[in-house]
Specification:
21% helix, Thiol Ester Dehydrase, Chain A, 5-stranded antiparallel β-sheet, two-stranded antiparallel ribbon, alpha+beta
Length: 140
C-alpha cells in the first residue's frame, strides 16, 4: 500500500488487545482496524456519529477477512495503512495493512461495508458525498 491514497493510523498494542499467550487476540484485529477506519472517515470530514444519527442510511459490515503475518505483543507500535480498495454502487471495500516499526507486515485485513436504508436494511446507492470522499483514498 505504498501510495499517497493511503491513510495512516498509528496504534500501540495494549494489554487489553492481547490473549493469555501475550500476543494480539485474533478478534481484536477487526476492532483495531475499525479504529483506523473511524480515523480515516474523520479525516474525510465524515462523522460516523452524524451518519448514525442524522442520515437515512447506515453502513453495516457485510464481509470481514484477515491474515496474521507476525506476532504482535504489548507495546508494539504499528502503522495501519487504510485504503479504499473498491467502490461499488451500494458498497465499498476497505483494506488494512499493519506494519511494525521495522516496516514488516504484521497483519492484513479487508472489510466490506454496504449502504442500506435505515429501518428496512434494503441496499441503497451510496450517497454522492460519501462516494466522493471515499475516492480520496481509492487505490489504483
Amino acid at each position: 500500500m505504498a501510495s499517497s491514497k493511503v491513510f495512516h493510523h498509528m496504534y500501540t498494542i495494549g494489554l487489553r488487545d492481547t490473549d493469555a499467550a501475550g500476543v494480539l487476540f485474533s478478534g481484536n484485529l477487526i476492532t483495531i482496524c475499525h479504529a483506523g477506519y473511524e480515523a480515516m472517515m474523520a479525516s474525510l470530514n465524515l462523522s460516523l456519529r452524524s451518519i448514525l444519527k442524522d442520515q437515512d442510511y447506515g453502513l453495516p459490515v457485510v464481509h470481514i477477512e484477515g491474515d496474521f503475518k507476525k506476532a504482535l505483543t504489548v507495546s508494539d507500535e504499528i502503522d495501519i495503512a487504510v485504503s479504499v480498495a473498491e467502490i461499488g454502487k451500494t458498497s465499498y471495500r476497505i483494506q488494512y495493512e499493519w506494519r511494525n516499526k521495522e516496516g514488516q507486515i504484521c497483519a492484513t485485513a479487508a472489510i466490506v461495508h454496504v449502504c442500506v436504508e435505515r429501518g428496512s436494511y434494503k441496499p441503497k446507492t451510496l450517497p454522492s458525498q460519501l462516494r466522493s470522499a471515499l475516492e480520496r483514498y481509492l487505490g489504483s
